[in-house]
Amino acid sequence: MKRFSCPHCGTRAYFHNLLCLCGEDLTYDPGARRMVAEAAPCANRDSLACNWSAHRDGALCQSCAMSRVVPVLNVGDNHRLLASAERAKRWVLANLAEWDWFTDADPGRRPRFLMLSEHTGGRDQQITMGHADGEITINVTEADELIRLKRQLKLGEQYRSMVGHFRHEIAHFLFDRLKVLPDFLPAFRAMFGDERADYGAALKAHYADPRDPGEDYITSYATSHPHEDWAETVAHLLHLTDVADSFCSTHLAMPGVPDDYHPYAETDAYRLLTIAAEITIAVNDINRALDNSDLYPFVLTVPVRHKIAFAHGWLQGHLARSDGKAA
Ligand SMILES: [Zn+2]
Ligand SMILES: [Zn+2]
Ligand SMILES: [Zn+2]
Prior knowledge:
There is one protein chain. This protein is of the alpha/beta class and 327 residues long. It has three domains: 1-61, no CATH class; 66-173, no CATH class; 179-327, no CATH class. The protein has eleven helices and eight strands. The protein has helices at residues 45-48, 62-65, 78-97, 145-155, 162-178, 184-192, 199-208, 226-250, 269-288, 302-316, 318-321, and strands at residues 4-5, 12-13, 27-29, 34-36, 67-69, 112-116, 130-132, 135-139. It has a four-stranded mixed sheet with strand order 5-6-8-7. α3 crosses α5 (162-178), α5 (162-178) packs across α8 (226-250) and α8 (226-250) crosses α10. The mean pLDDT is 95. It binds zinc ion (ZN) (3 copies). One zinc ion binds at residues 42, 44, 50, 52, 60-61, 63-64.
């Protein structure tokens, strides 16, 4: 994530800040990708602490406008959990805007989010996060850190976060956008396998007996089906690009990272991955000083790098490859 500053006094402003130390309101303009003065605020500013400006099409910002269903807010912690989940969503959408996904320059479809809670006021409901026909279901209950951590341990996952959930589920939506572009599907199938394989059976087999990721997959879940391999691969591309971008925004220096390096503008995915991996190794060393866990506990094998590079080419180049036509 880039660094932002207050348009009034120039002090550093963090992405989610609503107020500057100087007392001025902060509003993030997702089109301009900076904090602006004098913008109409999103209608969810007070209720959900959304600091984005309203989109020209209405009272909500473009992120809140994508949330078509929200939980009953006066039940349990739903209000706090939704606000927290929406924060993670804005972060991921701001990352994707760097490659012109869902910006004004992008004529294609937008996802619709069903932001659901397990707590409905009546009987608790089970929620499966996922994507189908442009609708992304997010379980806001997982914005509760303790609940999420328990599930992470139970599932034996190395990493689980709301930002990660959004990156993964949006990746499924991006597959649907990309699959209609010339040449995408044959190249995808050569790299990830045939996504027409029985999805339900594949997931059942995975949960009955999870496979080791080995050399070819980034996570165990990625082994379950080509669709999940793609979603995990894209999520890791987004993790690593954002790690590199955040590192560069701090103006920290490291051998091998050029001054004035712009990770989202990098066209050589392998170079981006090498740089991001070096950064994660360095930060892991710092984390050990406090006995914290590793920043990025994954190994980027050669086959995994090829998959991430494939996803990078399509995610970064989608507008050029679609010839400006809506996909
Ligand atoms: Zn200020
Ligand atoms: Zn908003
Ligand atoms: Zn998935």
